[in-house]
Amino acid sequence: MDHYNQGRPTRQAHKGIPDGLFEEEQGTKGFFGPVSYLIRKNPSTNWVKIDGPLKPRMFDLVELPKQSGCQRLLFNQHLTISNLWISANEAKNLVAQRNADGDVIYFCHRGRGEIFSDYGVLGFESGHYIVMPKCITHAILPGEDCQFLVIENRSSHFEQPDRGLVGRNALYDANALVKPDLATQEARLKELKLEPKVVVVKHLDQMTTFTYPTTVFDVVAWKGDLYPFTLHVDHLMPLMSHRAHLPPSAHSTFVGREFVVCTFVPRPLETDADALKVPFYHQNIDYDEVLFYHAGDFFSRDNLHPGMMSFHPAGFAHGPHPKAVKSIGGKTHTNEYAVMIDSRWPLNRDAALDQVELGEYWKSWQG
Ligand SMILES: [Fe+2]
Q1: For a FRET experiment, which of 24, 150, 200, 339 has its CA 20 to 30 Å from that of 17?
Q2: Which has more confidence, 265 or 69?
Q3: CA of 25 to the centre of ligand 1 (A)
Q4: Which residues, 6 or more positions from 311, have their beta carbon under 8 angstroms from its beta carbon?
Q5: Percent of the chain, pLDDT > 70?
Q6: How many Å lie between the centroid of ligand 1 and the Cα of residue 189?
Q7: CA of 151 to the centre of ligand 1 (A)
Q8: Which CATH class name applies to 238-356?
Q9: What counts of helices (H) and strands (E) characterise the chain?
Q10: How many CB atoms lie within 10 A of CB 302?
Q11: Is the Cβ–Cβ distance between 126 and 109 less than 8 Å?
Q12: Residues 18, 81: Cα–Cα separation, whole Å
C-alpha cells in the first residue's frame, strides 16, 4: 500500500507527540513490514474489562517448584521456553545430555558453574547466554544453585542478527563469544574424578539413555565452525539514538527463523526534549512477546522483581505503565537487564504457569 496519512500525524515516530495525546504503533513482520502510527486521545492500554482467554499475563518463575529437569512453560512447533533449576547437590552426579529436538540457549539467571561438552568446557555465571547446538553432548556442573531460562529452537539454528548499516562489530564483537576449552576440560574432569558414561538424549520430547563403557567426554582434538559458546550480557553494546526511541529489534542478540531473542541492558535515555523515553504503545501484530526480567530496576513498570516473566500475545496493544511514564522525568539512564523472546507464531501456555500467574496483571495499566 502507498504511504498515506490523515489528521496531523507527527513528522518522526516516537517524537513530538502532542501533549495529552498518545502514540500507538501498529506494525507487521516485527515492525519491518507495513506499519502505521496512530495518535490517540487515550493510551491503548486503557481497558477496564477483559472477557475471554486473551490478555496480558505475568508469571513469577521464582515461585515455580524447585524440581529437577526442565519445566516447559510456553511452546509452539518452532520454540519452547522453559525454566530449569539445578541444585548444587547435583554436582555429585554429572549427567551428560543431548538435545535432538533443536539448538538450546541456556540463559543463566542465577548461579554459576561449568558446562562440559564434546568441544571443551565453558564457564558460566549469572547473565551468561550459553548457546548449545543441537545434538552436542554436554553436562552442566553447578557451582551453586542455578536457575536458567531455556530457549529451544526446534525448526532452525540460532544465528547472529544482521548488523546491516552498523557493521559486524556492533551489538557484540565476535571476540566477545567465549569458545570452549578442550585442554582445560580434560584437566578439570581429571581433577574432579568425573567420567560420565551415560548420555540422556531428548528426541521428540522423549528421553533415551545411551550407556558407554568409557567416558563420553573423550574428544582429544576438533576443528570446525560448529561449537557451543557463551556470551555475557555485560559484553553487549546496545544501539541507541539520542534523538528517537529505537524499536526492540535494535537489541536483537540471537535469531531463529521463527523468533528472535533480544536483550535489554542499561543504556542512556534519549536526550532530545521531545523524544519519547519509555517504550511506545504498540501492537506487534505478527508476534507473541515474552519478556523475562533478569536484574536491575525495570523502568517500563513497577512491582516487578527479577525472575518474573510477562507474556503479551498478539491481539492487543501494550506499552508502559502509567507510573513509569510519570517517573521517567528525572532519569537519565535505564538500569535493567531483560531477555525478550518475540515469536512469529502464537505460543501455547503449559499448565505449570497457572500456579505462578499474577491474576491482576491485566489491570496494572490503570493509573
Ligand atoms: Fe512489545
Answers
A1: 339
A2: 265
A3: 10
A4: 56, 57, 58, 59, 74, 288, 289, 290, 347, 349
A5: 99
A6: 44
A7: 19
A8: mainly beta
A9: 2, 22
A10: 13
A11: yes
A12: 40
Residue 316, CA distances (Å) to 277, 291, 339 in order: 21, 16, 21
Distance 38 CA to ligand 1 centre (A): 16
Global pTM reads 0.96
Query: What is the C-alpha to C-alpha distance for residues 193 and 189, in angstroms, rounded to an integer?
Result: 6
**% of residues, the chain, pLDDT over 90:** 85
Provide long-range contacts, Cβ within 8 A and 24+ apart, for 237-241: 237/170, 237/171, 237/172, 237/173, 238/264, 238/265, 238/267, 239/166, 239/170, 239/171, 240/267, 240/268, 240/270, 241/270
For ligand 1, the distance from its centroid to the CA atom of residue 284, given in whole angstroms, is: 6
Domain ranges of the chain: 59-233, 238-356
Distance of alpha carbon 97 from alpha carbon 199, whole angstroms: 5
**Residue 299 binned pLDDT confidence (cut-offs 50, 70, 90):** low
pLDDT in tens, 261-293: 999 999 999 999 999 888 789 999 999 999 999
Q: In what order do the strands lie in the sheet with 259-264?
A: 57-60, 308-312, 288-297, 335-343, 259-264, 252-255
